[in-house]
Fold this protein.
Amino acid sequence: MTILDLFLTFAKIGLFTFGGGYAMIALIEDICVEKKQWITPDEMMNVTVIAESTPGPIAINCATYVGYKKKGLSGAAVATIGMVLPSFCIIFLISMFLDNFLDITWIAHAFMGIKVAVGILILDAGIKMIRKMQKKPLPRTIMLCAFAAMLLIDLFALNISSITLMLIAALVSLSVFLVKQRGGKEAVGK
Amino acid sequence: MIYLDLLIGFLKVGLFAFGGAYGAIPLIRDVVLAYGWLNDEMLTYMIAVSESTPGPIMVNLATYVGSSQAGFPGALIATAAVVLPSFIIILLIMVLLKKLLKNPYVQAILRGMKPCIIGIILATGLYMILHNCVDSSIQFSLNTTAIIMTVVLSAVYFGSGKILKKGISPIGLIGISAVAGIIIYGW
């Protein structure tokens, strides 16, 4: 794998990332995990968690992570620039030359189609992750609660960030771990 | 100076924007209005453009605001500023990650966060599909065209993996859906 490959791959992902970071997870899964095998599914899960719990666009976080892992600092820079460059050029041209971008009918109509695809891709990314999830009661419960909570937040436009849900999940899991650990020590003590 | 303002303004956005672009919009709005770069109406328009063009929404907005305020150098500075904080944070995490991942407490936290993000992603996907299928102009009326499109595209996407050895890729699906949108809704 060359540094050029890294650049071109992320430029491709950047060019086809619509509708925010979650849709891009499906693209990165497909290209970086399944086709090129640059990172393992478990690493992809870690990146997603890290990306969600650090500031900044998820796409940038993922590009930096994969780039650094494959080629160090220069890899991180190249992958991140690759991710940003296509949209940078497109937006720059639009802002310079197109005052009425949204009035162009065929683009608006193409986007109505793309919106449908984005929903499917996000769902697909989630389903693939469920398949790889630990089949134990605690992760399953957390997953279902997060799903229900997020759906309610979206449906009723509640002002609760997904970060809050992530923090709660982290606290629950940590508490369970601490309780178990203490239980284990007491058992050993007896 | 406009370049310095763009740099500081978008560093702020990049540093404090948690949880994806939609969570960041109020923050972006504060920054952009505080500097007097845009009014509410222009911002709404730019968000809509950023959504319908490829790339992370936050980065698109930065490029757009930067270029409308100070041309190409402005676009470059604003874009770099919005990307830089997450770039540096991820690098720092990766340098520390190997040690951190072996820590049992960190592992316990990650064990909780992983299923949580899966739930969040599933809910976001489902909500997006529901949102597309309900006509927002008329309350609670179903958008039949969008429902048919969703069903057909899902069947094509998920079905192709079962029939062909290599199913349609996510990029392929985006291409097909864009063409389908133009065919169905007109040129």
